[in-house]
What we know:
It is a single chain. The protein has helices at residues 8-14, 16-36, 45-54, 59-69, 72-82, 98-133, 155-179, 197-206, 224-247, 276-297, 310-336, 342-351, 353-356, 358-367, 372-379; strands at residues 140-145, 148-154, 182-183, 210-211, 255-256, 339-340. The protein is mainly alpha-helical. It has a two-stranded antiparallel sheet with strand order 1-2. The protein has a two-stranded parallel ribbon with strand order 3-4. Strands 5-6 form a two-stranded antiparallel ribbon. Helix 2 crosses helix 6, helix 4 (59-69) packs across helix 5 and helix 14 runs antiparallel to helix 15.
Amino acid sequence: MIPRYKVQEIHDIWKSENKLNTWLKVELSHLESLLANKENKTITQEELDIIKKNVKVDKDRWKEIESITNHDLQAFVQMLEESIPDNSGRWIHYGLTSSDIIDTSLVLLCKQSLKVVVDYCAIATYHINNLIKSKRSKNQILSRTHGKVAEVQTYCDVFRRWEHLIRRAFDDIIMTSSKLNFGKLSGPSGNNTINSKANEAYALSQLGLIPTVSSQIISRDMFLDYFYSMLKLVLAAEKIAYDIRIYSIDGINEMSEPFRDGQKGSSSMPHKKNPILTENICGLTRLYKSYFQTAIDNCLTLLERDISNSSSERIIFKDAAHICCHVIYKLSIVLEGLNIHEEKAQENIDINLEKVNSQEKLNKLISEGKSRKDSHDLSS
C-alpha cells in the first residue's frame, strides 16, 4: 500500500518478517505432527529438538536464495535448512508443497487482519452511538426519497440507520473470522500422497485450524468471505460518506464533515470548504470493489491449479485490509467532528412544509369517507 493510505497495524501483519515467521510456525507444526504419528513416525525427538533450538529466519539470506531460485517458498525452506547444524533439517517441508505453507499461512494472516478491522469498526460505532445519544440528534430534518422531500424525521433516525449499516458489517466480520478455520497440508495435488491425513489434522489443530478438501491450493472461493465481509463495511462507509456529501451541498447545508483551522478547500476560491474526507472514502471504495471483483476472478484456476491468481493476491489480500481500515478511520474522524446544522434543517422543513404534510391530508380525507384516489388527487 502506498504510504498515504497505509495502516501500520495491517502493514505489520503482512510485512515480510511476520509472513516468514508465520510460514515457520506452520512448518514447525508439521514437524510436530511427524513425531506425533506413532504408526508412521519419521522424525525423532532428538532431531525435532535440534531443529527447534537452531532454526531461524534470515530475511536477507532468504532474498539472496530467492534471487537464484525465483521461488520464494523453496528459498525459504533452503534458508531454514541452512540454519540447522546437522542433517536434521532435511525433515523440514517433508511431504508438503509450497501452497500447503502459503495458503495455510494466508488464512492465519487474514484472521489477524480481521481482528484489526474489528477494532477500527468498534471506534466508528462508538462515534455513531455518541451522535445518537446527543441532544442535537432530536432535532428535525427532512427525509428525501428519489432526491425529493418526503416527510419530516429526526437526525437520530438518520444516525440509527448508519449505525445499523456498520453493525451488520461488524457482525459479518466477526462471523467470517470464525469461519476462517481451514488449512491444508495435503501435498502437491491435495491427495495426502506422502503426508497422511492424520499428520495433516494434527498439525493444523496446533494452529487452530481444520483440514479442508483441496487441490494443490485451497479453493479461492473459500477466501471470498474475507473480502466480502470487509466489502460490506466499506460499502457502509461509502453510504454514510455519500449521505454526508449530499447533506453538505450548498442549498441543503444540513450536515457537513469537520473542517480544520487552517485547512484550505481550494487554491483559487478561498470560500470553499470541500468535503475531502467523505470524497476520499467514496474514491477508495471504488478501488476496493475492483479488488473484490479480482478475488471473484481468482476462483477460476486450471484443474488442480495454476498461478494466475498469485500475482494479484500479493496485492489484494493486504491492500484490501489497508483500504478497509483507512476508510473506517477516516469515517470515524468525520463522525466524531460531524457538523449538525439544525437551523438550516428547520429552514428547509419550513420551506417544504406544505409538501411534507400531504400524507396527513391524504389520510384525513380517507378517514372522512373519500376514496383513496380522490383523496390522493386532492392532496397532491
